[in-house]
Amino acid sequence: MDRRRFISNVVAGIAGPFAGVACAGARGGAKPVPAYGPLRPVRDLRDGKVRLHLPDGFKYRSFSAAGEKFSDGSTVPGRHDGMAAFSGPGGSAILIRNHEVTGPVGAFGDKARAYDPMAGGGTSTLRVTRYGEVLKSAPSLNGTLHNCSGGPMVWRAWVSCEETVNGPDVADDFSGGDNSKLTEKHGYLFEVPVHGTARARPIRSAGRFPHESAAFDPSTGALYLTEDNFAFPSGFYRYLPPKHPVQAGRLLDGGRLQMLAVKGAKRKDLSAGQPAGATYAAVWVDIDDPDPGFKGRPANDEAVQAVGKQGREAGAAIFSRLEGAVYHQGTVYFVSTQGGATAQGERPPSGFGKGRGQVWAYETWSERLKLVYESPRSSVLDLPDNVTVSRRGTLVLCEDGDGDNYLRGLTRAGEIFDFCRLEPIPGDEGAEFAGSTFGPGGHTLYVNIQAKQGRSIAIWGPWERGRF
Question: Whole-model pTM?
């Protein structure tokens, strides 16, 4: 399909001003709904262990856990994170999955192909059945660092995001790893094709900052980016490549990086509690130096703010920990993990931001920003992270909370519901959901458990009975 026809088809699918979930925010935010029914412990069809609590009728199988082997005999790394599903042959799904490994621990897979042979993060690509049976698997990007999330591209590629600015030119970060052992600068985007392996070339013009997710707008060719700067203010960015990626067949370097600001309100603090349905006109400010190099190995806390400070000095808005993002019908939905007000009787989480989460919507063609939902308390929504969207337009939110972690749905009608609860893992209180993505045809929801021994999971069942 040529670019003009492709874009026309995309624009035709945009369903009016703030359609879908964003429309629900005008009615005062989400409300609880039973949806699929109560959750019960369900055994993993792989080995009989209980890993998930699901509604009646749903089944799952785990696969490709850390420490197992890829088809080429190399070892699967841990810290499974962001992921996308693409259609494969014979009804299979091709999954491209991040591994959020940090520190100079050495590259997995073939070190000769690594961007930085000392860095332990990257992506793996798997072809799996609708029931979580692995048909083929292999490393697809290695030698990168702290690959958190990213986003699927319509030209059948995954953009993987490094959530760090580590490198030999920056002092050590919170993990205690020795940055002097790294051979390359980090903090970039990398494109991974559905077939084969990545070229491991960073998109430097898209910024060197703690990237989280990427959401592509096919009507304009812009790539929207979230920043998860844990202890400091974060920003919402867009990268304007020098050529429309659909026409170019890939994401090109050499474009322009910008940061969102609220029109008429410099450095507007959107991390704090907001009124229901709050809506703002957005403008964009340029980042003059998107790829800073550092001299004298500055403190990591200084380096990690270098790009964001440029935007805020020009008036960009302040957010708290922007994580998951997804494009749907002319709108980019993105999550502020610790945004909002602190609920009465609760303690604020550590890091920048005092709330339990916000969901924002940016309408790309009208350049308006709207608050879709703000968590009233942790029992309703607790630190949302990765996000995807179902065929019915319901958002799937992965939690990264302090207690039990859920997959929750936020419907087009503004209803929030519990779909799945993670069984606590003894000795691994930090285990969480990540990387939710529906496979071809919507039969299977693939999701990762990010844990000390991470793994991927395929979930299927009577989707038609509820809101997904």
Answer: 0.95
Instruction: Give the residue among 249, 229, 276, 245 at the shortest CA–CA distance from 372.
Output: 276
Determine the 3-state secondary structure of 245 from DSSP. helix
Greatest Cα pair distance, the chain, in angstroms, is: 59
Cα(92)–Cα(436) distance, integer angstroms: 17
CA gap 229, 235 in Å, rounded: 9
Rounded Cα distance between 120 and 295, Å, is 25
Local structure of 313: helix, strand or coil: helix
Q: How many CB atoms lie within 10 A of CB 14?
A: 16
Is 1 exposed, middle or buried, given 0-12, 13-18 or 19+ CB atoms closer than 10 A? exposed
Task: Compute the distance between CA of residue 19 and CA of residue 466 in angstroms, rounded to an integer.
Answer: 20
pLDDT attached to residue 21: 83
Phi, psi of 121 (to 5 degrees): -95, -175
Average pLDDT over the chain, rounded to an integer:
93
- C-alpha 2: how far from its chain's center? 29
Residue 356 in contact with residue 405, Cβ under 8 Å? no
How far is the C-alpha of 233 from the C-alpha of 320, rounded, in Å?
6
Q: Which two tokens stand for residue 293?
A: 């190099």
The single-letter DSSP state of residue 269 is B
